[in-house]
Amino acid sequence: MIRAVATSPSGETSPPDNRFLRFLVAGVVNTAFGYSVYAAFVFSGAHPQIALALQFAIGVVFNHMTHGRFVFGTRGYGRFPHYVAAYVAVYLFNAVLLKLLMSFGAGAYLAQAIALAPTVLLSFKLVSVALRGGKDAS
């Protein structure tokens, strides 16, 4: 069996990392937190788009920490502006998709649940680029 190895700038090799798996684990935590915030705002009477905006605003710092530290091994807030830009792009994609799904008759809770899968895939790609500065962001 052939195993792929990653080569560091110093020439050392290491087994391929499992960033996407760690991203998914962090995503479960982030999604549970974010969806709970969204649902709480909708339950309290907020319009779904307002609830989504508030959820994204509240989640950006928490999610930056889980993605940065747990997934990509970054520390501090030097790449935070890039992360926020990626997060805004993901938010806009999610907001448009939520509106589209609701226009087809899905309720606020179901529409957001359906929107999660494509939003997560886009998020991984954009967050990878934001936190790693374009280095091996596949």
Question: Would you write up a description of this structure?
Answer:
- The structure is a single chain.
- The protein has 138 residues and is mainly alpha-helical.
- The protein is built from four helices and two strands.
- The chain has helices spanning 19-43, 48-71, 80-103, 108-132; strands at residues 6-7, 13-14.
- Strands 1-2 form a two-stranded antiparallel sheet.
- The longest helix is centred in the N-terminal third of the chain and has 25 residues, at 19-43.
- It is elongated.
- It starts with 5 loop residues before the first strand and ends in a 6-residue tail after the last helix.
- The model is unreliable at 1-16 (pLDDT under 50).
What are the SSEs and their pairings?
Elements: E1 6-7, E2 13-14, H1 19-43, H2 48-71, H3 80-103, H4 108-132
Helix pairs in contact: 1-2, 1-4, 2-3, 3-4
- Spatial extent as radius of gyration: 17 Å
Taking strands numbered 1, 2, ... along the chain, how are they ordered across the largest sheet?
1-2
Instruction: Give the rounded overall mean pLDDT.
Output: 84
β-strand percent reads under 5%
> Would you identify the regions where 5 or more consecutive residues have pLDDT less than 50?
1-16
- From the spread of the alpha carbons, the general shape counts as elongated
**E-strand count:** 2
Helicity range of the residues? over 70%
Given the helix and strand composition, which structural class is it? mainly alpha
Q: How far is it from the N-terminal to the C-terminal residue, by CA?
A: 23 Å
In DSSP terms (H or I, runs of 4 or more residues), the helix count works out at 4
Q: Which H/E pattern describes the elements?
A: EEHHHH
Sheet of most strands = 2 strands, antiparallel
